[in-house]
């Protein structure tokens, strides 16, 4: 199988991130934070950048298709706790996949008909997931090259939007008097935290990368690039769209924001960028989730059908894709966002804690992962408190989902009674054994 380089790894990270934040939940963030929306994106980005340090260090030390789940096992052992967290990550991937597909359907329907037609929206959401499941079954090289093309085109279009949007830009709504209270705009950033989660998909590509030294570069550069992109786009959008319009057209607000400077052509151009962005995010997510599902299955935490090979991919990709379809056509975007963000905040806090515990093996500065652990943990608490006050039903649904994951893990282990292994990835295990001989 052909290996991938820095550009492909960078594209997987950017592709996984850009698509959720800007095209799926920008409108929701503006509704929660108003003029402080750019600050919301910056706060979430800072947390992601600190967490990227742990991912970079752990990926170089433990290169594995499992990425995050391998790190959790190495730090906490092969027990029920690790198994539950690994399955939580898998659930969060499904949530994220459905969020991106939901956004794809919104923009696709608006682009084709000028409005959001429910049946068309759902049809497009389901179709795009199934299409990229098919692409991913042909292996990492085709996935990476597909990602390169989509990321390049969508970034160019977004840069055009920024440059031209500045011509009709009005800064009035960015003034502090239009900001919501600090707790609201901080929570706004946390609710859309999953907008940044795509960078961790680079870890799943560690074994497919030619030179492991490019991993840290890919992590840091992709996160920094996306922070700048998100904050700038949020600023330009608020300068071109009223808060009322942003709320009313929250699912495709960026396309509306392009109209003052580019008219209907701007709406179409951003619609195309949105379709490419959400499509590339779906592509990158299926790539990472398929590998997570494969190793979780080999670890004995979910049915082994997930580890069955199909061409150069896994049967688990198909299963995850089908679950993503069900979520995308069944749940509202705010509900999905809260559940996904909370899941990833929990997982990322434990990745930071993993690097803190393994700092000697990863050659890390222990203060950085500790700070990352505290930030992600506090963020999760703030997110829970905010939604307990303002969206108790959505929080309850997220809690039910997380509880369901834990119970499934416990019952499945009781029924199957698998003997768990120290390493999830056989190649990594062979490398570790040989290095100790």
Q: What number of domains?
A: 1
CATH topology: Amino acid/polyamine transporter I
In which order are the strands of the major sheet placed? 1-2
Number of strands: 2
Query: For the residues shown, what is the average pLDDT?
Result: 79
CATH domain class name = Mainly Alpha
Number of helices, where a helix is a run of at least 4 consecutive DSSP H or I residues: 20
* CATH level-four homologous superfamily name: Amino acid/polyamine transporter I
User: Do you know the CATH architecture?
Assistant: Up-down Bundle
Largest sheet: 2 strands, antiparallel
Order of helices and strands: HHHHHHHHHHHHHHEEHHHHHH
Note the gap between the termini. Answer: 29 Å
Q: Cα-atom Rg, whole angstroms? A: 20 Å
Strand content: under 5%
Structural class: mainly alpha
Provide the low-confidence segments as ranges.
Answer: none
Q: Residue share in helices?
A: over 70%
Q: What is the molecular shape?
A: globular
What are its keywords?
437 residues; mainly alpha; Amino acid/polyamine transporter I; two-stranded antiparallel sheet; 2 strands; 76% helix; globular
What does this structure look like?
By secondary structure, the chain is an all-alpha fold. It has a single domain, classed as Amino acid/polyamine transporter I. It contains 20 helices and 2 strands. The chain has helices at about 5-15, 20-25, 25-35, 35-60, 70-75, 80-115, 120-135, 140-165, 180-190, 200-205, 215-240, 245-250, 255, 260-300, 315-330, 335-355, 360, 365-390, 390-415, 425-435, and strands at about 310, 315. The protein has a two-stranded antiparallel sheet. A hairpin with a 2-residue loop joins β1 (about 310) and β2 (about 315). The longest helix is centred in the middle third of the chain and has 40 residues, at about 260-300. The two termini are about 30 Å apart. The mean pLDDT is about 80.
């Amino acid at each position: 199988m052909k290996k991938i380089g820095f550009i492909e790894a960078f594209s997987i990270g950017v592709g996984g991130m850009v698509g959720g934040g800007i095209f799926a939940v920008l409108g929701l963030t503006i509704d929660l934070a108003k003029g402080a929306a750019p600050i919301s994106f910056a706060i979430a980005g800072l947390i992601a950048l600190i967490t990227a340090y742990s991912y970079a260090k752990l990926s170089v030390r433990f290169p594995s298709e499992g990425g995050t789940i391998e790190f959790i096992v190495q730090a906490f052992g092969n027990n029920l706790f690790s198994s539950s967290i690994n399955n939580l990550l898998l659930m969060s991937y499904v949530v994220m996949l459905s969020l991106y597909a939901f956004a794809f359907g919104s923009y696709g329907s608006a682009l084709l008909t000028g409005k959001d037609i429910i049946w068309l929206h759902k049809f497009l959401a389901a179709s795009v997931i199934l299409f990229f499941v098919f692409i991913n079954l042909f292996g990492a090289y085709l996935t990476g090259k597909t990602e390169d093309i989509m990321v390049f085109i969508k970034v160019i279009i977004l840069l055009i939007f920024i440059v031209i949007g500045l011509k009709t830009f009005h800064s009035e709504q960015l003034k502090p008097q239009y900001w919501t209270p600090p707790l609201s705009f901080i929570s706004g950033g946390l609710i859309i935290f999953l907008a940044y989660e795509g960078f961790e998909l680079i870890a799943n590509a560690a074994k497919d990368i030619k030179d492991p030294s490019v991993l840290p570069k890919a992590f840091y550069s992709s996160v920094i690039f996306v922070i700048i992109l998100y904050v700038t786009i949020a600023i330009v959008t608020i300068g071109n769209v009223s808060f009322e319009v942003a709320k009313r057209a929250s699912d495709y607000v960026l396309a509306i924001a392009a109209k003052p400077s580019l008219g209907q052509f701007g709406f179409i151009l951003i619609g195309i960028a949105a379709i490419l962005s959400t499509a590339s995010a779906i592509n990158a997510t299926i790539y990472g989730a398929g590998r997570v599902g494969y190793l979780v299955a080999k670890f004995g935490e979910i049915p082994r059908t997930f580890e069955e090979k199909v061409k150069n991919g896994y049967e688990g990709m198909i299963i995850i894709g089908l679950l993503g379809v069900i979520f995308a056509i069944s749940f509202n975007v705010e509900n999905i966002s809260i559940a996904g963000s909370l899941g990833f905040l929990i997982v990322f806090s434990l990745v930071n804690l993993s690097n803190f515990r393994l700092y000697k093996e990863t050659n890390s500065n222990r203060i950085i992962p500790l700070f990352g652990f505290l930030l992600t943990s506090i963020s999760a608490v703030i997110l829970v408190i905010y939604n307990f006050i303002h969206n108790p039903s959505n929080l309850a649904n997220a809690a039910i989902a997380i509880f369901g994951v834990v119970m499934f893990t416990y019952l499945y282990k009781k029924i199957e009674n698998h003997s768990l292994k120290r390493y999830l990835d056989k190649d990594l295990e062979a490398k570790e054994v040989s290095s100790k001989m």
